[in-house]
Amino acid sequence: MKLNAEDTIAAIATPPGAGGVGIVRVSGPRAVAVVQPLFRTKGKQTLEGAPSHHMLYGWIERDGEPLDEVLAVVMRAPHSYTRQDVVEVHCHGGALVTRTVLELTLERGARLAHPGEFTLRAFLNGRLDLTRAEAVQDLVGARSGWGLRVSANQLRGRLYGEIQALREDVAHVAALVSAGIDFPEEDVVFAHREDIQRRLQGVERRVRGLLDTAERGRRMREGLAVAIVGRPNVGKSSLLNALLRESRAIVTDIPGTTRDTLEESLDLGGLAVRLIDTAGIRDTTDKIEREGIARTRRAIESADLVLAVLDGSAPLLPEDRQVLALAPAAATLAVVNKRDRMSGAEPPWAGELGPLPRVALSALTGEGLPALEEWMRGWAVQDERPLLEHAILTNLRQTQAAQGALAAVQAALAAIADGQGEELIAVDLARGLDALGDIVGETTADDLLNRIFAEFCIGK
Ligand code: GDP
């Protein structure tokens, strides 16, 4: 895709299939000219003459024949999503109707938009920086209440604002250093040494703080990957089903990261969870048994958190110990299931679990399930709920750029401490500024932009 915003693009902006309305969106210098000839109102109103952001009622016509009764709206540049002239036609939501209206706009000279091209234009025209463009995508794909809040904050410019503040500090230092290069007789860096170090140390601390948020940002956005493991018959499938029933919405089924696991995505009171399921494995022969352990190992490897399910009404078997040995102590919860069939609060072998945190529950009756959910939520945020309100890094691209910025600022600090020349310090600072600029998309290469926006949906 060429990063050129001169042509006029069109796409269906609503999901495919039948719905209440189907929206065809057109953006570009000829947006009004493309739609005007297709659109008739009862009176003399035209799209050309219509005030911006006013809905007009009328009909879309094909060869003089009425095709669909619609509402049409013009949003004039620069007060639109793309900052170009945008026309939206709100049709009756049928797949064929919206497709036909789209085809009519293409016949009139619009070009079919690439995925994400409307948002790309918003970015190229300076309406959104890259973090906010990515937030649009995240918002559309949000799988949980928390994910939604993180994206909304990013869309409001939390991360953008933080990065801009950091860039200002680095730019201030860079200006001082370049003054030192221009006036070598005055030792500018030496004279401003304290201010420079204080600012750069502040930047270092804040970038570190951002990087600390990256892992939790990813979890909030993508969801916590939770593996349910255990020997056959302990109740893994029952637990999975019980959790699915509790969740507010099963949003999507995602194929597991390995071919022999399933993933289900759900929202547990705001926390997005991807359950990696190894259930349904019935070990009857030696070979399959070994395979079962291999699957368990793979599920554990791809998980953030492991739920090791044990049967509290039965003795602890060698297979249970095998599973527990595979589970990482820092990220495992022992789920003592079948509590309804236990005589006490703990099974007799509870001592063998050592310091592993555990929850006793019954997947069958649902008793103890809320405690499990609460535990998982607590584990996911580790009491950093306020994080929701902060600037956080939400994807690998941002994280890598922030790591580059951190390395550059640290190099500049080391160069200053070593008494290096201004030229050298200036190079580090320029690298740091570039890396920070990358986060907001100011210094990002075209092919990278293309890759980022290609992941958007059509019409967005
Ligand atoms: P999996 O092989 O680990 O997936 O185990 P299942 O979920 O298929 O459960 C094995 C058996 O244990 C089934 O007969 C379940 O009905 C039963 N079961 C699972 N959870 C409980 C529970 O909490 N209490 C009782 N009494 N039975 C359970």
Describe this structure in words.
By secondary structure, this protein is of the alpha/beta class. The protein has helices spanning 31-35, 95-107, 117-124, 130-141, 145-155, 158-182, 188-191, 193-222, 236-246, 286-301, 318-326, 369-381, 396-417, 422-440, 446-454, and strands spanning 9-12, 21-27, 39-40, 55-62, 65-75, 86-92, 111-112, 224-229, 250-255, 262-268, 271-277, 305-311, 332-337, 358-360. The strands form 2 sheets. A 7-stranded mixed sheet has the order 3-4-5-6-2-1-7. A 7-stranded mixed sheet has the order 9-10-11-8-12-13-14, with helices on both faces. A hairpin with a 2-residue loop joins strand 4 and strand 5 (65-75). It binds guanosine-5'-diphosphate (GDP). The site of guanosine-5'-diphosphate has 16 residues, from helix 9.
Tell me the number of strands: 14
Mean of pLDDT: 87
Q: Using only CA atoms, what is the Rg?
A: 28 Å
The computed structural class is alpha/beta
* Order of secondary-structure elements: EEHEEEEHEHHHHHHEHEEEHEHEEHHHH
Bound molecules: guanosine-5'-diphosphate
Our count of helices gives: 15
Secondary structure layout plus pairing:
Blueprint: E1 9-12, E2 21-27, H1 31-35, E3 39-40, E4 55-62, E5 65-75, E6 86-92, H2 95-107, E7 111-112, H3 117-124, H4 130-141, H5 145-155, H6 158-182, H7 188-191, H8 193-222, E8 224-229, H9 236-246, E9 250-255, E10 262-268, E11 271-277, H10 286-301, E12 305-311, H11 318-326, E13 332-337, E14 358-360, H12 369-381, H13 396-417, H14 422-440, H15 446-454
Parallel strand pairs: 1-7, 8-11, 8-12, 12-13, 13-14
Antiparallel strand pairs: 1-2, 2-6, 3-4, 4-5, 5-6, 9-10, 10-11
Helix pairs in contact: 4-5, 5-8, 6-8, 6-14, 8-13, 13-14
The structure holds guanosine-5'-diphosphate.
Residues 230, 232-238, 279, 337-338, 340-341, 362-364 line the site of guanosine-5'-diphosphate.
